[in-house]
Amino acid sequence: MEGEERRTWTLLTSHGHVLVEIARNPRARVREISEISGITERATQAIIKDLERAGYVERVRVGRRTHYVINTDNPFRHSAQSGLLVGPFLELLTGMADTAPTPPQPAAPAPAQPAAPAPPRLAVPEPSRA
């Protein structure tokens, strides 16, 4: 029950997750951002439009790809964070991802024991055809 309760909400909103992921990888595709953020591609596209309209994100076309530029001088939108800029927050979260300890990996299976060498083969002369 306790584990289930922890999964029902996250500290950041979906907008926050998308913004952090764009800060981590400004060349990410909507599909990649969506997978990492845990929301649908359609919701991710809508959030990116919201962030763009609010001036947090700018889309830049580079060839056939879209790259994102974040305006780190934008303030937070909630009055409780009045005067705080998003730049230091994003630096903290993206920097922590680079230095966070990697989760423990399952132990690698023990290497297979080499097969016992095959018994030596005896050369049997072919019968003569005389």
Rough outline:
globular
Q: Given the helix and strand composition, which structural class is it?
A: mainly alpha
CATH superfamily of the domain at 10-98: Winged helix-like DNA-binding domain superfamily/Winged helix DNA-binding domain
Order of helices and strands: HHHHEEH
Determine Rg (CA atoms, Å). 28 Å
State the total count of DSSP E strands: 2
- The proportion of residues forming helix, as a percent range, comes to 25-40%
Oligomer: single chain
The fraction of residues in strands falls at 5-15%
Number of helices: 5
The averaged pLDDT comes out at 81
Strand order of the largest sheet: 1-2
| Measured distance between first and last alpha carbons | 88 Å
Secondary structure elements and their pairing?
Blueprint (H helix, E strand, L loop, with lengths): L1 H5 L7 H11 L5 H8 L3 H13 L3 E6 L2 E6 L15 H14 L31
Antiparallel strand pairs: 1-2
Helix pairs in contact: 2-3, 2-4, 2-5, 3-4
Written description of the protein model:
The chain is mainly α. The protein has a domain of 89 residues: Arc Repressor Mutant, subunit A. 39% of the residues lie in helices and 9% in strands. The protein has five helices and two strands. The protein has a two-stranded antiparallel ribbon with strand order 1-2. The protein is globular. About 4% of the residues have low confidence.
